[in-house]
Amino acid sequence: MRNxxxxxxxxxxxxxxxxxxxxxxxxxxxxxxxxxxYIRDLIRQDMQDRAIALNILEGLDDxxxxxxxxxxILDFKDDG
Length: 80
Known about the structure:
mainly alpha; 3 helices
């Protein structure tokens, strides 16, 4: 079976100010040990934010088209 966590490289160009900021975040004084770790975490956070936004848009579309439950979460509890 092939390893599902194969890594690849991505080279990016940053302004001096951005590079300085990344270096500050990836230091002994912060939670990230390396610039790569910091960038990977930013990407993961962006993925989560996008998933949340898409779920909200889907929910708004459901309401717009009358696909919603008028009760509360407690109604689901009582059904069980």
